């Protein structure tokens, strides 16, 4: 009889207090979180599995997360437990990409010309001229000019010289001669 009362009290205690959020290193977990972990000098490790180990998970829940050690990405099941569909959500971000179209006036020789590569990128990606029917209205872009590294991998040395790029994506260059049909400049952005 005493054992039954203890079990009833234990279940009542669990029922009353298991509705609250759990906080690790915080006395006041956020109300919107089931689990709130606080640290200023440590991260959180989630299970690290190979792709084969990930695929062997029986009935993985929708939104289940693991780190795929083969693909080197945070991987999420966007499918169902009976039909898993694993998506590399950290690997989906493009690591590098070419600059969108940029017009350079090479009609006359000029020194210390500038192009704000980040602003040109943001403006073109933010408002495309056309899109597929179901696509969002704008292309997602990196919110800060300091989220990217900027490179000029090659340029027509007959047209461009003294090329430099600031950490915020402002390119300075000299125009030595008018461009021809074969003139070029290759600009690449790399995600930090």
Give the helices and strands, then pairings:
Layout lengths: L1 H16 L4 E3 L10 E3 L10 E2 L1 H5 L9 E4 L4 E5 L8 E3 L7 E3 L11 E7 H10 L21 E8 L4 E6 L4 E6 L9 E7 L1
Task: Summarize it.
With 192 residues, this protein is of the alpha+beta class.
The shape, in one word, is: elongated
Q: Tell me the β content.
A: 25-35%
Low-pLDDT residue spans? none
Quaternary structure state of the chains depicted: single chain
In order across it, which strands form the biggest sheet?
3-4-5-6
Give the strand tally. Answer: 12
Give the SSE order as H and E letters: HEEEHEEEEEHEEEE
State the major sheet: 4 strands, mixed
Protein described:
The strands form 4 sheets. The protein has a 4-stranded mixed sheet. Strands 7-12-9 form a 3-stranded antiparallel sheet, with no helix packed on it. The protein has a 3-stranded antiparallel sheet with strand order 8-11-10. The chain is elongated. The chain has 3 helices and 12 strands. It is an alpha+beta fold and 192 residues long. It has helices at residues 2-17, 51-55, 117-126, and strands spanning 22-24, 35-37, 48-49, 65-68, 73-77, 86-88, 96-98, 110-116, 148-155, 160-165, 170-175, 185-191. A hairpin with a 4-residue loop joins strand 10 and strand 11 (170-175).
Write out key terms for the chains shown.
single chain, 192 residues, 3 helices, 12 strands, elongated
């Amino acid at each position: 009889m005493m054992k039954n009362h203890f079990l009833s009290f234990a279940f009542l205690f669990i029922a009353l207090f298991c509705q609250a959020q759990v906080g690790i290193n915080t006395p006041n977990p956020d109300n919107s979180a089931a689990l709130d972990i606080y640290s200023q000098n440590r991260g959180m490790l989630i299970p690290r599995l190979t792709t084969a180990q990930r695929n062997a998970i029986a009935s993985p829940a929708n939104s289940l997360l693991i780190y795929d050690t083969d693909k080197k990405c945070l991987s999420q099941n966007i499918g169902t437990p009976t039909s898993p569909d694993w998506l590399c959500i950290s690997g989906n971000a493009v690591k590098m990409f070419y600059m969108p179209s940029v017009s350079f006036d090479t009609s006359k020789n000029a020194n210390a010309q500038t192009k704000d590569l980040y602003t040109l990128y943001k403006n073109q990606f933010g408002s495309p001229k056309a899109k597929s029917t179901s696509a969002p209205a704008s292309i997602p872009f990196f919110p800060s000019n300091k989220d990217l590294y900027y490179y000029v991998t090659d340029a027509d040395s007959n047209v461009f010289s003294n090329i430099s790029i600031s950490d915020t994506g402002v390119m300075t260059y000299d125009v030595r001669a008018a461009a021809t049909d074969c003139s070029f400049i290759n600009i690449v952005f790399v995600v930090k």
